[in-house]
Amino acid sequence: MPTKKAKPAWDKAMPAKQFEWMREILAAPSPIGLEAAMSYGVIKPFFEEIKPKSWAVHQFKGNAGIVLDSHPGDEERTSVMIIGHADKIRLQVRSIGSDGKIWVNSDSFLPCTLIGHEVKLFSQDPKKPGDYRLIEGGTIEALGAIHFSEPAQRTGDKGIKPTQLYLELQMHGEKCKDKIEMLGIRAGDPIILDRPIRKGFTDNTFYGAYLDNGLGCFIVAELARIFAKKPLKNIRILYTIATHEEIGRRGAMAIAGEMKPDILIGADVNHDYDAAPNLGAQKMNALTMGKGFSITKGAVTSEYINTLIEESCQADDIPYQMDFSGRDTGTDAMAAALSGFDSAVTSIGFPIRNMHTISETGHTKDVLAAIGGMEATFRAMDTMNKNKGIKINDLKDNHPRLDNVTKL
User: Fold this and answer.
1) Using one digit for the tens of pLDDT, what is the confidence trace for 196-227?
2) What is the three-class DSSP state of 54?
3) Cα 317 to Cα 242, 326, 362, 369, 376, distances in angstroms
4) Is 375 inside any structural domain?
5) Looking at the structure, do residues 98 and 156 belong to the same domain, yes or no?
6) How many angstroms separate the Cα of 294 from the Cα of each of 8, 78, 267?
7) Omega before 105 cis (within 30°)?
8) What CATH code is carried by the domain that includes residue 266?
9) Who contacts 63 (Cβ-Cβ below 8 Å, separation ≥6)?
10) Is pTM, for the whole model, over 0.85?
11) Domain edge (last residue) among 151, 166, 193
């Protein structure tokens, strides 16, 4: 009798050990500009543990990004960079009130999504600059109580302004401001949401803070693990953990601009448009979590690279969905264009719900499909040209020609 074919990874529940590894990456406190907790504290030790001796880890002067390089110094092989970004959107201390309220900005959060949530504040010892401490036990507030709100806020006709947000550390009594300042809290200190991911009610779902973009970094790390065990022969892979994405892709621009990969793939979260409220009139494409990872068309993405990914996924029945962008993918896939060098690029993603909130929600099938899709694509690239690997001329000579199309 024929043997029963095993289910592929994306059609099964994510193994508990792998889920905990994903959780560890996402939980690393890495607000914008202070990403080393994830890149150096979690992922670099992992890279050092799994890498073959010939591989190398690159570090950078102006950011805490890292690159695991499968063929350091080899300029002959076609290079492929896949990027996740370690930085998390954060709040920052604006000022301290005489009553002990710590006024904060809302950065890329909707103010109304922050109220009542527990957070972590990181400040430096005023006597030892550079020595960071963690302050917990506070929540983000704005109105204090419904009794103090305006009538329009009670009915929902009026929202919360960013300037109304403050961190409540329960200070009371005399000289509250002095007590806060003695803790070393000062303008610019970062504050992040405090909710590590956990499994959701529905099978294979999970939720929590900062899927954006610990998930992209998880994909990069898992691909490094796979190819460290069974290395590719003909292409150079640059497994990249970038920084400063949330303020303009600044880290990826610096890293990619220095290393100039021939192919660049951004790995980042995407939106579940099907479940997004109030989008009906916009008639967005049918993109939903649980149906596979996404591939982006438009902006500066390469149709040729997208075709290679689609062909690889179709060959192995890996689920994927198509998305589109206009001028900008909104991801690190733009790093080459923004840095001004030539590279064939695209962006892959994982449709999630509630982006930039404390309850971002995802599906393990999409994450595992992205890993499988990228593994299949890289292996296909490695065997092109009679097992000599994808070449620069393949990128140059395979731009689609719409003057040579088949008429239906």
Assistant:
1) 999 999 999 999 999 999 999 999 999 999 99
2) coil
3) 30, 28, 21, 10, 11
4) yes
5) yes
6) 18, 24, 10
7) no
8) 3.40.630.10
9) 35, 242, 243, 244, 250, 251, 254, 255
10) yes
11) 193
